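Example (one chain per record):
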Amino acid sequence: AIFTYHQWWGLVTAGFLHGGILHILMNSWVLFDLGTQAEEVYGTSRMIVFYFVSTVTGFFLSTLWNPGLSVGSSAGIFGLIGAMIALGVRHRSALGDHIRGLYIRWAIYGLLFGLLPFFAIDNAAHVGGLAGGFGVAYIAGLPRISSGINEKLLRIVAGICVGITMFCFLEMYLWFAHQR
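Predicted structure:
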């Protein structure tokens, strides 16, 4: 639906909009726990990039799979789950195995929860977010102790992600203002 109406900005803004108070409370609760863990392991810049990319990949897949509207931060949340799974895959050790297993269970529980018939949950956004977060985290890896070029580049990319998000909200506002 986003591409049908040339609302490309919806791939970003949908991740910050919610369908009600319970929806935002549930997502906030998970994001509070999971976001803290992902930021502690990967750092703020990487977490921002993971969240941004997984939101876009999640809502891109959602748009291809389902022409209806979909909103919520769960595409980004599943992206952070994917990032934590990537951590476990890249770092082969007992701790890595434990981390990978824990977050694979989180992903499975989330996807199974999305199959419940009385909730309108967009599993396509979840799968797209999971894949996007895993892919970017696998490539980006963990922060380095030194402040090398990769770390500076990731800070710049995180700033660009924030800037694009702000621009998308401006585009959304202008689109709605023009519809009046």
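Caption: The chain has a mean pLDDT of 88.
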